[in-house]
Amino acid sequence: MELEGELHNHNHNHNLLQDQTQPLLERSLLDELKESQTSTPQNDNENAAEDWSRCFHWDSRADDIRFNTFGLSSYRANQREIINAVMSGRDVLVIMAAGGGKSLCYQLPAVLRDGITLVVSPLLSLIQDQVMGLKALGIPAHVLTSTTCKEDEKVIYKALDRGIGALKILYVTPEKISKSKRFMSKLEKCYHGGRLSLVAIDEAHCCSQWAHDFRPDFKDLGILKIQFPNIPVAVLTATATYKVQMDLIEILHIPKCVKFVSTVNRPNLFYKIHDKSSIGKCVVDEIADFIKGSYPNNESGIVYCLSKKECEKVAKDLHDRGISADFYHEGMDVVSREKVHLRWKKSKLQVIVGTVTFGMGIDKPDVRFVIHHSLSESLETYYQGSGRAGSDGLPSECVLYYRPGDVPRQSSMVFYENCGLQNLYDMVRYCQSKRICRRSAFLHHFGETAQDCNGMCDNCAYGFEIKEVDCSYVTTVIISLLQQIQEIDQKTTMLQLVDRFMSKIKELGGSEESASDLKREEIEQLVIQLIVDCILKEEFQHTAYSTNAYVTLGPLWKQVLDGKRRVNLEIHTNHQVGSNNSTDKGAKRKRTSRLEKKLDDLRSEISSQHGGIFPHSVLSLQHMSLLNTHKPTSLDKLEKLIGKVRTEKYGAQIMHAIEECFNFESSDSDQEFDLNKTPKKKGTHPSQMHQDSGVSTSEFKVPATIPDDRIFDWIDSNIVAK
Ligand SMILES: Nc1ncnc2c1ncn2[C@@H]1O[C@H](COP(=O)(O)OP(=O)(O)OP(=O)(O)O)[C@@H](O)[C@H]1O
Ligand SMILES: [Mg+2]
């Protein structure tokens, strides 16, 4: 046993060292790879590192499409460079945080290049979202699946076969590539006719068995580069460790790809771990109170649960507490699932309660909160799920309800997976830590250097005083309890062990050190800490219906018994240090102005008038905030704020809404203003009048001094980038 302990200790240190050097090694390998890629370009600039941010001859056309078609006033980080690499005919591997704007990186080149772009994406619901959004922008996009009607199929095949019709972007699921010979032969015709312009593989991590959403059909997508070697392939995903990235390059046959790895940091997300009650009813009460208190205006959110049954129960319980919530899981038929998804997407349902399968690539930009009802199986899964919040760049919250008792439940589900327990224990460390910045934990996990959290996680924001309690003695009591249990050939679960410990402490009269001072929850926390630190370990046993997790002695127990290793537990003292901002930055609510409310109603109305397109396809929150601040007085001015396509489609209705609202407000404030004339109050910009009147309380108020054509830049650098 001692030798085992020593050996494990050695391995543990070795692993730690490896953990620390791995990101460095990966970074240097990445740099080397980047250099080797850029030194073997397929153009004239042999050996010259390509600068993707320089000027290209398509710049002005690209800018025009970005603004007038997509309604975006500037590019986000890396978007322009990626688009330039794709436009130059290069394969690209894009790793960009959830909500970072990967779609534009292939949708804009798709519009800009002649011919048809093929997009492979894993989920039908996700594809339908994208196609609906593109159609609303006037871009001819289609989806081809087994459920596509004959008429649409004809249109698509005509376009592929003979270049007839206006198809620009065709979405398919991977199964179409691996299973439909007919489709592949049409695609070949399209390629040989010079009409295939780009292949995009979205959510590409599904190709790798090392990633969390592995999909076997994705493995066959390598065929695309083999069959269409001259067509650039854009491979995109939100999370991919170095191992997954290498896997993608190999599986998809893109050894010369240009890699764009953006930071995983999401500065607008507030991360928080919430202590979870051991009573189920209380947990739902707390979640309901949180939603009602922080999001009283029907702001959208997601609650993630571990099982289908739990989703249904939590959705019902939330509903019973007055929250419009419904469940979504893979056990439902496609139609009911889609119904729930659409109601939520159109903000007719506030909360969707789903399993992890809900959310991949879902483009709902205004998700204000993501709650995890239970522990996630890995940091990667948690990052991906919580990343569904705030893709519009506005402050949003990610809250995980944690209790140690949830660990055995998760571990018995993942222990047989490759690195399953290791990944879970990383997640547990994240939840149990009361000091380490949550943001830094993510950045470290994905091999990035630390960045300023700006008080956007509980550990950085609250400044609770933390006491380190020496639990070495308590640990020896736990170890001796386990020895006794093992001697009589019995097994114990984590919760049973804590029960036994509590009675033992009573027996001992609570005299020893501070053992009796620890609350039950703290002892649970300690046992879990001992497990992730290898002093104890989990063992698993299958029964006919489930797998049980038991606690036994781990490789390092003797070191504690011999006094060679101290055990400290971090505990909150309930005392908040100094006057550190105690309010959640993420929970700070923006009051909506009258005009924003009016525009919000208008976009819902327009969305139902136009066959149920999504409200944000009509106007995004940023658009509404801009209109609120700048109150355009003509269609020309409106176009400068929201682009040509939206102005042509909805301009008249938007102007009418502004006029109505402004007349109403100006009568309130005794100021005369006619939209078609200059304001009578000399020298006052309408937005200034608005701000002066104190009506607008937008958190992201754009200063009226910012010229119209710089507004989006201002938002991106002052809101999105912060
Ligand atoms: N340059 C930009 N300026 C402002 N908003 C943008 C920009 N690019 C994209 N967006 C918006 O950001 C949101 C998220 O974009 P998108 O769906 O492409 O993200 P993603 O990276 O694919 O995320 P996911 O990993 O969740 O699929 C969308 O609402 C999109 O309109
Ligand atoms: Mg996406």
TrEMBL record:
This protein is called ATP-dependent DNA helicase
Domain HRDC residue range list: 589-668
Q: Which Gene3D superfamilies does the record cross-reference, listed alphabetically? A: HRDC domain (1.10.150.80), P-loop containing nucleotide triphosphate hydrolases (3.40.50.300), Winged helix-like DNA-binding domain superfamily/Winged helix DNA-binding domain (1.10.10.10)
Record-listed E.C. numbers: 5.6.2.4
What the entry lists under Pfam families is as follows: DEAD, Helicase_C, HRDC, RecQ_Zn_bind, RQC
Q: Which InterPro entries match?
A: DEAD/DEAH_box_helicase_dom, DNA_helicase_ATP-dep_RecQ, Helicase_ATP-bd, Helicase_C-like, HRDC_dom, HRDC_dom_sf, P-loop_NTPase, RecQ_Zn-bd
Q: Where is the Helicase C-terminal domain?
A: 283-432
Keywords (alphabetical) are: ATP-binding, DNA-binding, Helicase, Hydrolase, Isomerase, Metal-binding, Nucleotide-binding, Nucleus
Question: According to its UniProt record, which cofactors does this protein need?
Answer: Mg(2+)
- The species this protein belongs to is Rhynchospora breviuscula
Recorded GO molecular functions are: 3'-5' DNA helicase activity; ATP binding; DNA binding; four-way junction helicase activity; hydrolase activity; metal ion binding
